[in-house]
């Protein structure tokens, strides 16, 4: 391991849980149910159960590993320590490249709700610049702003759901529609793949393990709290949307929660959903930038990325070179790319990331084991199954992405040996 300066341990269970919540309860909660309903109809409820189970398996692996290796980098470090340098590199590369695209998508989602027409890209870039500056000034600033954003989003969702159920009438018959299996198991698995990425933010807690107090106790507890609260919220939203709009209505609406509110007698609350979506996108973006910076720091420490990125700010104790570089890259993606397919592109990398995590957790010795091995086997198998549901273009881009990463690492290894 590198002798570069350590980060400061400043996060307790409450703040770590909020960072996980801010990562999970992001823009996906306002958008992911539409493609999930198109894929599975009412079967999205079964897809949600599958996604939650996969998330739980992956979360137990991440928590078990983070307790044993409480340092920045998440699965990149776990893969290196348990499986070797190449699996670790592939996990880290998939996370950095995939989540950079996701961060750009979050910024553009925020702008879609908050910016005047024609100003979406400049507003998205401005959001990245501001939130990168917040992260630059220390993890306690990040946690403080995340606390405000998460509470605002939860309040907006509570108002939206109350307004929906207070309207003229959710129809419980709509919930099952034509039946949970009307679109088949492939549709259910595809909806699970789409909904899974609304859960994936719990890994952000593990990637920030070097900044958590009492990590062996705090990280598993924070991951469990954040994931449990998120599952409850998503189940309530899924049932509400299906009861009000029905499966076809959810599938046809780009803003299903806003439409569900508008259908009730308290339609004045619909703008709250729009504000909530914008705030949720900011919360997810803030946590993404923080997690990306820590994983890049870990990879730079091991020379899998340029070592310049391993610098830690002497005052703020954050990986400032990594965060600034990533902020620039995210802005470049926003400026030139059409990000409607960003989720599919990043999905490939994220699923491989968790595949490595599950395999690494499976190899841990008895003294480090907190959960039974069958959860890691189930998590790894589920990651492979969900990859199979991705569109062919996403799989092709993912394979290309990892081929580029492999060539990049081979060249760096040769340069170091020369």
UniProtKB/TrEMBL annotation:
Alphabetical keyword list: Cell membrane, Membrane, Transmembrane, Transmembrane helix
Transmembrane segments: 12-33, 45-69, 90-113, 119-136, 148-165, 185-203, 223-246, 266-292, 343-362, 374-390
Compartment(s): Cell membrane
GO MF annotation, one: transmembrane transporter activity
Name the record gives this protein: APC family permease
PANTHER family membership: AMINO ACID TRANSPORTER-RELATED, MEMBRANE PROTEIN
Chief location of this protein within or outside the cell: membrane
Pfam families: AA_permease_2
GO cellular component, one term: plasma membrane
Bilayer topology: Multi-pass membrane protein
Classification of source organism: Bacteria, Bacillati, Actinomycetota, Actinomycetes, Micrococcales
């Amino acid at each position: 391991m590198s002798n570069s300066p350590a980060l400061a341990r400043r996060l307790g269970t409450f703040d770590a849980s909020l960072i996980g919540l801010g990562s999970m309860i992001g823009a996906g909660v306002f958008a992911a149910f539409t493609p999930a309903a198109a894929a599975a109809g009412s079967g999205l409820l079964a897809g949600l159960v599958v996604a939650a189970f996969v998330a739980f398996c992956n979360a137990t692996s991440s928590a078990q590993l983070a307790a044993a290796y409480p340092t920045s980098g998440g699965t990149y470090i776990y893969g290196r320590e348990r499986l070797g340098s190449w699996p670790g590199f592939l996990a880290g590369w998939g996370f950095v490249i995939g989540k950079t695209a996701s961060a750009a998508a979050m910024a553009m989602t925020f702008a879609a709700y908050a910016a005047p027409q024609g100003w979406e890209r400049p507003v998205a870039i401005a959001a990245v610049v501001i939130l990168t500056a917040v992260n630059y000034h220390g993890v306690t600033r990040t946690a403080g702003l995340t606390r405000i954003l998460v509470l605002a989003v939860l309040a907006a969702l509570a108002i939206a759901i109350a307004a929906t159920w207070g309207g003229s009438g959710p129809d419980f018959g709509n919930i099952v529609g034509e039946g949970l299996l009307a679109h088949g198991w492939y549709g259910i698995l595809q909806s699970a793949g789409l909904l899974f990425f609304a859960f994936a933010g719990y890994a952000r807690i593990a990637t920030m393990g070097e900044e958590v107090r009492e990590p062996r106790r705090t990280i598993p507890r924070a991951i469990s709290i954040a994931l449990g609260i998120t599952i409850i919220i998503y189940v309530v939203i899924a049932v509400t949307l299906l009861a009000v709009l029905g499966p076809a209505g959810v599938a046809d609406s780009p803003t299903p929660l806003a439409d569900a509110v508008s259908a009730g007698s308290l339609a004045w609350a619909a703008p709250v959903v729009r504000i909530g979506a914008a705030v949720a996108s900011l919360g997810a973006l803030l946590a993404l930038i923080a997690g990306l910076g820590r994983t890049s720091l870990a990879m730079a420490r091991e020379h899998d990325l340029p070592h310049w990125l391993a610098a830690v700010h002497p005052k703020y104790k954050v990986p400032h070179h990594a965060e600034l570089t990533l902020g620039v890259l995210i802005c470049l993606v926003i400026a030139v790319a059409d990000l409607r397919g960003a989720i599919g592109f990043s999905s490939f990398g994220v699923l491989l990331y968790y595949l490595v995590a599950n395999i690494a957790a499976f190899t841990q010795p008895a003294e480090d084991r907190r959960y039974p091995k069958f959860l890691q086997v189930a998590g790894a198998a589920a990651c492979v199954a969900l990859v199979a549901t991705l569109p062919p273009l996403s799989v092709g881009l993912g394979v290309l992405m990892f081929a580029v990463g492999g060539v990049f690492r081979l060249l760096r290894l040769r340069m170091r040996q020369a």
